[in-house]
């Protein structure tokens, strides 16, 4: 394996969020491998949870980036194989922003990471200020449809930053299954569908066809804009603020 002392490390993004962060920092040139779910045009090492270790070995990376508790066993396997791994596992908005600096440090771009973190905090504060005078609306954010899963992790905070209230998960908690009765009792003003892996192809009409007794506006949001702990999340918060308060 190459030495991490090289000025330009060879980096494999084994998580889509990692390739998105690195690309946003203008450092996509250091990526030598990505997953099938990444948007960067590089050799593919497999899926997010199904890396091809033989393929990975041929890329001779200095650093491999993993993310989320679901990749913890992959992280451990990679370390057992002798790789240097930068593992990110944020579950709050602050954690996501801090992870930008952690990843930047790992790839030798600490100044760029600090700048991105500062800009992101300013972006978040701008959205909060913009919606501060609006009435808070109740939101049901659904990460998965069958069974219905209310979004957790940083999503409750993202909704709060956008001027909403998501009473189904506390910030930092994992997403969880909810019942029709539970959602109806909360009487959401807005439903946000951001189903994992579906992009913008979720069908809002399918939600109406469930027959749930909910009088709410239904929005479909690209899942990367809420589910991915990358700069895309903060773009998603801006879009969410516009959707939740379009009539304010």
UniProtKB/TrEMBL annotation:
It comes from the Archaea. It holds the Pfam family Peripla_BP_2. Residues 15-207 form the Fe/B12 periplasmic-binding domain. Keywords: Signal. Signal peptide: none annotated. InterPro entries: ABC_transptr_periplasmic_BD (IPR002491), Vit_B12_bind_prot (IPR054828), Vitamin_B12-ABC_binding (IPR051030). This is ABC-type transport system periplasmic substrate-binding protein (Probable substrate iron/cobalamin).
């Amino acid at each position: 394996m190459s030495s991490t002392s090289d000025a330009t490390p060879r980096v494999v993004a084994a998580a889509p969020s990692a390739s998105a962060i690195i690309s946003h920092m203008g450092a996509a040139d250091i990526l030598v491998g990505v997953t099938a779910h990444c948007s960067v045009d590089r050799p593919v090492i497999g899926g997010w949870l199904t890396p091809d270790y033989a393929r990975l070995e041929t890329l001779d990376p200095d650093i491999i980036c993993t993310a989320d508790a679901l990749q913890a066993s992959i992280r451990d396997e990679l370390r057992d194989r002798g790789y240097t791994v930068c593992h990110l596992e944020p579950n709050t908005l602050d954690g996501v922003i801090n992870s930008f600096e952690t990843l930047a440090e790992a790839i030798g771009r600490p100044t760029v990471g600090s700048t991105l973190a500062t800009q992101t905090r300013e972006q978040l504060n701008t959205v909060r200020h913009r919606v501060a005078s609006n009435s808070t609306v109740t939101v049901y954010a659904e990460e998965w449809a069958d069974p219905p899963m209310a979004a957790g992790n940083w999503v409750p905070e993202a909704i709060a930053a956008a001027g909403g209230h998501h009473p189904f998960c506390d910030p930092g908690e994992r997403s969880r299954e909810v019942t029709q009765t539970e959602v109806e009792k909360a009487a959401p003003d807005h439903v946000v569908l951001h189903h994992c892996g579906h992009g913008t192809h979720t069908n809002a009409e399918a939600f109406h066809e469930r027959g749930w007794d909910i009088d709410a506006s239904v929005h479909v949001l690209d899942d990367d804009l809420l589910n991915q702990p990358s700069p895309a999340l903060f773009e998603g918060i801006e879009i969410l603020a516009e959707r939740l308060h379009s009539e304010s």
